[in-house]
């Protein structure tokens, strides 16, 4: 079969071709314009319910066939193939702004999409806009895209004509294509398809933002003229503003961290070196038990997110025999460089290092880095894998023997290896923000080995802030050894330390042990000064407003909005889940859950977003309920064979608000084969109180017999 039509202006033509055997067919849609032909081909399996239709459409909208877009000419004829179960979508459909006061009218023919049996747009002087959706049959639907400025209750009605009468179900379609029923509109029979009537209002509650509303016909045919949205009272929105704080003492992926064998109860992050010689004792044979049982089992890291540094050489202050942390087989292959620390001073001590620019060393380093990243990049404990392996402590320098340093080309190869191997959402850190090799890249942060009030410390911070390097990855560092006493005083007993942290936007920092600070500074107050800086670092999420509506219909829809503000000095660098919920205040069970698609990595310091969602929450006015917000590590609440090797407190975020928090814990299912998952971790943002339907209400309230109020 072959169908071809040409527009009246002769500018474009469309053709649909196909085999005569409809049971197994292919077809082609061909567009001819000034730029030549555009063709889409595809196989079709036809059955008796499949049609090949030619539709006259005066508006000549762009259309979509099986998820492939095709524009059409500005006027004339549209030829399209409709498959069973397919849809036609209007690429030029406008988003209708629904006002929060008065009534908004939306023409039905300005649809975003229609179902597999598309109704025709019929000219009609009886209708608003002189047209309507004609012969809208049973089980077919159309969709509109609307945007509401705020969460609100609306009264919705249709102007429609149906011979025998029908019902139209109103649904809201989420980003995953799931339809949630909002209301059902009764269209009375009028004895004809030209006698239009306005239906009785139905109650619809909508959060703020973009919405895709579907209108699905339940039974008999109907023509639809327009839809109206009448805004309810602004008082229907119940708002609370949680009390702000400067943040909790413990939150994941931020603050003063620990390292090695140190175990500080304020720390959620631990730093550890991984020695190449122990990781790969034989060429291509990796000992992961060494990492798990010796390194990550240390108190400084156990149960925490980890920052890992891969090293092959220590520094010259150690005994010569302990300088080398690499495998013996590697030393045999590449040898070593050695000499006195200061060539001008014959009495300076001996030191040695690995020849980092040796091609064999580089090749083996690439393999080892790849193995390390492959093993730990998806481990839930991993926060950062630092760019290391070159230089003393993996820090890319061989001070004071700079003649042994890795070349720029060697550094580039090693850096590229880390960036390629940590994965698209992985994080790494380099040391030198002004090094041309270390230009900004996604996922790459920086770490300062001299994080104190020295010239280098300030230069590092200035470079981070001047070039906005904190936007791509987390900034960290450590307090260096042999620091003068006056620097201790300025850092830990004045606001200079706080300014230092703000300038470089540190997310983590390895400090001296608190007992060491207390020994040097007897008047030092850990809770007032140290912990203030600890809370300052990284992100701080604060709920500034919480709003809700509870629908009155049988669906039990709960609409929740939370304004979230990052009061911290840095972004949140991981993609974690953000959930809203309605919880039973007594049992703490979740009775309605909203999985938002929020990406907190997009929230820089000072940024705000509104979390919004709707959930089915069957609420009993005799019970008490709480609005909950949970930010948790992705998949922490999914069942797994065993709990992660992370303390439960380190997989969810506590807000910078004075609110109750439901403590999180790893809990095994009562069904053993399901396994373990995180329970709890909710920030409880306020209680919903209900007015019972038989309590006095105003005329305005009568339309929504079950209303909620909110108290913190």
Automatic annotation (TrEMBL):
<dbReference type="GO" id="GO:0030246">
    <property type="term" value="F:carbohydrate binding"/>
</dbReference>
<dbReference type="InterPro" id="IPR005084">
    <property type="entry name" value="CBM6"/>
</dbReference>
<dbReference type="Pfam" id="PF16116">
    <property type="entry name" value="DUF4832"/>
</dbReference>
<dbReference type="Pfam" id="PF03422">
    <property type="entry name" value="CBM_6"/>
</dbReference>
<dbReference type="InterPro" id="IPR008979">
    <property type="entry name" value="Galactose-bd-like_sf"/>
</dbReference>
<protein>
    <submittedName>
        <fullName>Carbohydrate binding module (Family 6)</fullName>
    </submittedName>
</protein>
<dbReference type="InterPro" id="IPR032267">
    <property type="entry name" value="DUF4832"/>
</dbReference>
<feature type="domain" description="CBM6">
    <location>
        <begin position="104"/>
        <end position="230"/>
    </location>
</feature>
<keyword id="KW-0732">Signal</keyword>
<dbReference type="InterPro" id="IPR006584">
    <property type="entry name" value="Cellulose-bd_IV"/>
</dbReference>
<dbReference type="InterPro" id="IPR017853">
    <property type="entry name" value="GH"/>
</dbReference>
């Amino acid at each position: 079969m072959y169908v071809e039509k040409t527009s009246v202006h002769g500018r474009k033509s469309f053709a649909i071709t196909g085999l005569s055997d409809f049971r197994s067919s292919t077809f082609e849609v061909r567009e001819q314009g000034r730029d030549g032909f555009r063709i889409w081909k595809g196989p079709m399996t036809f059955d008796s319910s499949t049609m090949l239709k030619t539709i006259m459409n005066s508006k000549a909208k762009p259309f979509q066939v099986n998820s492939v877009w095709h524009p059409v000419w500005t006027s004339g004829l549209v030829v399209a193939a409709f498959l069973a179960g397919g849809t036609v979508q209007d690429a030029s459909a406008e988003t209708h702004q629904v006002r929060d006061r008065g009534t908004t009218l939306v023409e039905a023919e300005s649809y975003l999409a229609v179902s597999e049996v598309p109704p025709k747009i019929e000219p009609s002087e009886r209708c608003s806009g002189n047209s309507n959706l004609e012969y809208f049959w049973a089980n077919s639907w159309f969709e509109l895209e609307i945007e509401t400025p705020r969460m609100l209750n609306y009264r919705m009605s249709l102007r429609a004509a149906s011979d025998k009468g029908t019902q139209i179900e109103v649904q809201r379609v989420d980003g995953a294509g799931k339809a949630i029923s909002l209301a059902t509109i009764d269209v009375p029979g009028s004895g004809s398809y030209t006698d239009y009537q306005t239906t009785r209002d139905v109650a619809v509650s909508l959060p703020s933002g973009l919405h895709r509303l579907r209108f699905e016909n339940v039974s008999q045919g109907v023509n639809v003229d327009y839809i109206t949205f009448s805004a309810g009272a602004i008082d229907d929105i119940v708002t609370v503003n949680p009390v702000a704080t400067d943040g909790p003492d413990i939150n994941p992926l931020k603050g003063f961290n620990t390292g090695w064998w140190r175990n500080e109860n304020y720390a959620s992050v631990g730093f550890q070196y991984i020695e190449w010689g122990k990781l790969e004792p034989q060429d291509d044979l990796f000992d992961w038990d060494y990492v798990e049982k010796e390194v990550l089992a240390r108190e400084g890291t156990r149960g925490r997110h980890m920052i890992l540094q891969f090293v092959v050489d220590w520094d010259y202050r150690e005994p010569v025999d302990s300088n080398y942390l690499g495998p013996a087989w590697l030393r045999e292959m590449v040898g070593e460089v050695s000499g006195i620390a200061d060539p001008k001073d014959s009495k300076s001590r001996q030191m040695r290092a690995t020849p980092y620019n040796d091609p064999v060393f580089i090749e083996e380093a690439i393999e080892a880095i790849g193995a390390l990243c492959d093993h730990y990049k998806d481990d839930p404990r991993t926060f950062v894998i630092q760019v290391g392996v070159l230089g003393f402590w993996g820090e890319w320098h061989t001070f004071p023997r700079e003649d042994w340093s890795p070349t720029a080309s060697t550094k580039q190869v090693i850096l590229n290896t880390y960036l390629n191997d940590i994965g698209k959402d992985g994080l790494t850190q380099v040391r030198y923000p002004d090094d041309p090799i270390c230009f900004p890249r996604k996922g790459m942060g920086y770490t300062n080995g001299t994080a104190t009030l020295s010239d280098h410390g300030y230069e590092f911070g200035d470079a981070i802030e001047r070039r906005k390097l904190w936007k791509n990855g987390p900034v960290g560092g450590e307090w260096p050894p042999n620091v003068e006493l006056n620097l201790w005083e300025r850092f830990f007993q004045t606001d200079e330390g706080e300014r230092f942290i703000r300038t470089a936007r540190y997310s983590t920092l390895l400090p001296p042990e608190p007992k060491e600070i207390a020994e040097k500074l007897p008047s030092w107050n850990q809770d007032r000064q140290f912990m203030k800086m600890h809370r300052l670092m990284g992100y701080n999420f604060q709920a500034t407003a919480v709003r809700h509506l509870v629908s009155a219909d049988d669906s039990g829809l709960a609409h929740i909005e939370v304004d979230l503000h990052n009061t911290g000095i840095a972004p949140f660098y991981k993609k974690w889940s953000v959930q809203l919920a309605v919880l039973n205040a007594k049992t703490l069970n979740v009775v309605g859950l909203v999985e938002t698609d929020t990406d907190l990595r997009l929230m820089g310091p000072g940024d705000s977003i509104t979390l919004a969602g709707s959930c089915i929450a069957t609420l009993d006015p005799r019970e008490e309920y709480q609005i909950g917000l949970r930010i948790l590590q992705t998949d922490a609440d999914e069942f797994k064979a065993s709990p992660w090797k992370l303390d439960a407190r380190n997989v969810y975020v506590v807000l910078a608000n004075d609110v109750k928090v439901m403590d999180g814990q790893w809990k095994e299912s009562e069904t053993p084969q399901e396994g373990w998952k995180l329970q709890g971790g909710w920030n409880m943002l306020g209680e919903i109180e209900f007015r019972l339907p038989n309590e006095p209400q105003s005329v305005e309230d009568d339309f929504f017999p079950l209303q909620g109020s909110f108290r913190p």
